[in-house]
Amino acid sequence: MPGATPRNIDVARYLDHHRMMHRIRAFEEAAAKANEDQLVLGAIHLSIGQEAIASGVCKNLRTDDYLLSTHRGHGHTLAKGADATAMMSELLGREGGICQGKGGSMHIADFGVGMLGANGVVAANINIAAGAAHAIKLKGDDGVACSIFGDGAINRGPFLEGLNWAGVFKLPALFVCESNGFASTTRTEAMTSGEGAAARARALGVPADEVDGNDIVAVDETVRAAVDVIRGGGGPRFIVCKTYRLHGHTASDPAAYRPRAEVDAAWKNDPIARCAAVLREAGIDAAELAAHRDAAATEMNQAYETAKTAPWPDLALAYTDVQDIGDPRERAF
Amino acid sequence: MTVMTYAEAGMTALAEEMRRDPLVWAVGEDLGRGGVFGQYKGLVEEFGPERISDAPISESAIMGASVGAAMAGTRPVVEMRFADFALCAVDELVNQAAKARYMLGGQTKVPMVIREPMGMWRSSAAQHSQSLESWYTHIPGLVVAVPSTPADNKGLLKAAIRADDPVVYFEHKNLWGMEGEVPDGDLLTPFGKARIEREGRDVTIVSWSSQLHTASRAAGMLEKQDISAEVIDLRTLWPWDRDAVFASVEKTGRLLITHESVSVGGFGAEIAATVSEHLFKALKSPVRRRAAPRIPISYAPPLEDVVRVSEAQIVETVLEMVSS
User: Fold this and answer.
1) Is A76 an annotated catalytic residue?
2) Does A2 map to a domain?
3) What's the whole-model pTM score?
């Protein structure tokens, strides 16, 4: 088991992380089940194996800090504080969905906890997060805006434009690259020239750290230090979290383009097991850790049961929240 | 009333709104030096560089950051410099700004104004001359404004800044220096209310932006031939004032739409189709369009003029309509 480094850790904090990582894992497993049951009609992208990043980042954000996520955003959204049942109902397109069934998995948002949206367009959330940080600065607030994106995003223009923007205006922005090795179904390294994400960020004047994204302690400590700097007016920071996407690009992708042995090896680096090992070394009982797993499974199975018995959304919703001026209901013919 | 130019009217609108609401700010390339057409001149001195903000040549970030800043509680006025350049930020406008409110289940609105200087203006060729207003009318979530006078450039811009929707705001480069009387004070021009530029009996001519003035001059030429043309300035394309167009066509029985943008897929097609669907029996002649051919805009003036729809062409078409 790599990386189970004995440290003087805040046990309560890492019990929270362990609980949250299990909740994310269980949510994704319930979502995968819903997908197999053909109750999720659109594409969903699972974050199994990447839970330490979601938990490690969001634990260091306040509820009123902003988070912008990607198509692979269930874990981030849960960790920011959104309700699992409302999220699952959204995946199933049902009444009670967190976006009224109008967005689905790729547009999950919960403004009540500062989660301003997942996004269906790779890298689009980088500029939006920079803008949310710009608003924080204009208003003189002490918040932070965080964008989490994958390694595929570093080859899109908004990566350059958004990081440069945050650097030029010295914005309170945290950029987290969840580097899981794949850009859709292609290995990112095969399509990326140069030294990679951190070097690009540094070249744009944004200080960058690289951490083992499956080590919850490393992620938590690195993010905490970065957020302290950002909140103190130190400008934007960039963190690359190295991880591995244990499932396919979508829940329906068998990911046959990579060898089985590679995936098996990656499972041995499971961030939840590593977090558990850290806690065991700190004296936490195995039964307590197993209880986290069981509670998470119960919660997420219940979320799925609730979602699948919910009715479809009211048809009138098709015409709401389009726009105030020139509302389509005035011109429905 | 104060006589001012179209550019000054826009500047007055922005300054008044920035004085009224500290959350309004403008961002774009070269704004600190007054903007590429001088339409922000002097504003940085009053409001400072944070609220009249320069930007890198990063259209995607200008638009995308403004989406985030709008969702996080401010009201950005985005300067795109040329409507052509705004194409570098179509994802941010079409997939993000226009869709966020709906796809996030009404949890947010995206109050922003996207200023896009449009149209032909001297020899500027195919990447600095386009009129792309019809594209954005196709996108649910967007409001599209196309002011043709200094008064409307004040009243519509102020209304756009106060709107909670993303408003794509097309100012015509050929109109920057146009002078006109502009009402003082809090002028708010409603969206979707057309202006009757000129009343008439025999034919309705619908237009907007700079082409409206060509249509108006053509109406003057027709008057000398005893043909009375009613000229309607739509002012905004979404929403567009269907009621005003219908009322006029019911009176005249003839409809010509003229715009500077390409005829194929232009907004004239939408107006023609709608009138045909609802007022077919009121029509005395087929609905006609006069708009640009589907060719890129040239640099050499005689080639550039091939794209322009002239007063003479409008007159010629109306004569065909009234004699049929």
Assistant:
1) no
2) no
3) 0.96
